[in-house]
Design goal:
- Keywords: Aminotransferase, Pyridoxal phosphate, Transferase.
- One of its GO terms (biological process) is transsulfuration.
- GO terms for molecular function: carbon-sulfur lyase activity; pyridoxal phosphate binding; transaminase activity.
- It is a single chain.
- This protein is globular.
- The model has no long low-confidence stretch (mean pLDDT about 90).
- The protein contains 15 helices and 12 strands.
- It is α/β, with parallel strands linked by helices.
Length: about 400
């Protein structure tokens, strides 16, 4: 039976303090108390419903967190100032000096740089593996391993992680499975498949308007409480706090996510099939030619499709850059990083969002110079979009 997480968002009911259909925005950095004892109790975490200081929590942030937890099917969630502001505290909370992480080799460049270059300063080391090969994942686990880390659909190669299989490994070795679900909100629900912690960059599909950055960590109440602990909580002490105005804005956009994801997926499926029929090397989880098409299909919530991300390989960086510039000139989208916007966004990840990964490692994982990553937009006439893209490719002798 397919899960329908959007229905859980739909069923949430918030009222503003004056009866508004949107909750009031808590535009305060600090909060007053009627007694000194209540302030003390709040510091100790023993005054439910009281607010102390907005780095700890605020009503606006808690409203958004509750909605995102309902979407992912977790007990609760905490929001952060960026996607990296969600990823880094989770790793630092779960790992101590001497601990080890097993991570997918194809992940967002910023995450890769943190695990490869920064975490070793804390004596936390990472082994990068092909996440689609469970035997390779298991072989990389050591007695010091604490975390399995992956993206549901990897950035930028669109490899698909077998969340159920990884969850079984995590349970077998008493590890925490942490899944970045940024590329596939609603399409896949990692927590329902066995993930312990689910992360999103809210900047992308969930917000959908490319006007703010944000992140979220979805998990158990116990784990989120540890992140917020005033003595040793990574979210609390590192200070990557989301602004209340931004939280309120993202909450409003979240309400249309289920509609937007259906259109992103529909358009991406159409273009992927057309590109593949044209003979382009096309990668999209919705294509039967995708190595993990069946894995995605067995995990997905059917209603939301295979997501809005696809890649094509046009053979060289020069051709990729020229094509992207031409498509932007023809108003087919923007030459820009990020994803989830109403317009199609495209970039060459090897020289942008994955540039932190050394060239030899890019080659080993199959990230070629000519690869273009597309975040497909909400075009109402996707056939016209394809025809114009096709013309651009013919002009450049890509087809």
């Amino acid at each position: 039976m397919a899960f329908k997480p959007a229905n859980n968002i739909q069923d949430l009911q918030y009222f503003g303090e004056f009866g508004g259909v949107n909750p009031s925005i808590s535009d305060s950095s600090t909060y007053t108390f009627l007694s000194a004892k209540t302030m003390f109790d709040t510091f100790e975490g023993n005054a439910d419903g009281c607010y102390l200081y907005s780095r700890h929590s605020s009503p606006s942030n808690l409203y958004l967190g509750e909605a995102l937890a309902a979407m992912e099917g977790t007990e609760t969630a905490t929001v952060t100032a960026s996607g990296m502001g969600a990823i880094t505290p989770v790793i630092m909370q779960l790992c101590h000096a001497g601990d080890h992480v097993v991570s997918s080799r194809t992940i967002y460049g910023g995450t890769y740089a943190f695990l490869k270059n920064f975490a070793p300063k804390l004596s936390i080391n990472t082994t990068f593996v092909d996440i689609t090969k469970l035997d390779a994942v298991e072989a990389a686990i050591t007695k010091n391993t604490k975390v399995l880390y992956c993206e549901t659909v990897s950035n930028p190669l669109l490899e698909v992680a077998d969340i159920r299989g990884l969850s079984e490994l995590a349970k077998k070795y008493n590890l925490q499975l942490v899944v970045d679900n940024t590329f596939s909100p609603l399409s896949i629900s990692p927590a329902k498949l066995g993930a312990d912690v689910v992360i999103h960059s809210l900047t992308k599909f969930i917000n959908g308007s490319s006007d703010t950055v944000g992140g979220v960590i979805c998990g158990t109440q116990e784990f989120i409480d540890t992140l917020r602990n005033v003595n040793d909580g990574a979210c609390m002490l590192l200070g990557a706090t989301m602004d209340s105005l931004r939280a309120a804005s993202i909450l409003k956009n979240l309400r249309t996510l289920h509609i937007r994801m259906q259109q992103h997926s529909k358009n991406a499926q159409y273009l992927a099939e057309k590109f593949e029929n044209d003979g382009l090397k096309t990668v999209y989880p919705g294509l039967q030619s995708h190595p993990s098409h069946k894995t995605f299909k067995n995990m997905m919530n059917d209603k939301y499709g295979y997501g809005g991300m696809l890649t094509i390989d046009v053979g060289s960086l020069d051709k990729a850059n020229t094509l992207m510039e031409m498509m932007q000139d023809k108003n087919l989208g923007y030459l820009a990083v990020s994803l989830g916007f109403y317009k199609t966004l495209f970039s060459a990840p090897g020289t942008s969002t994955s540039s932190e990964i050394p060239e030899e490692e890019q080659q080993d994982m199959g990230l070629s110079d000519g690869l273009i990553r597309f975040s497909i937009g909400l075009d109402a006439d996707i056939e016209r979009t394809y025809n114009m893209m096709h013309t651009c490719m013919k002009v450049l002798h890509i087809l």
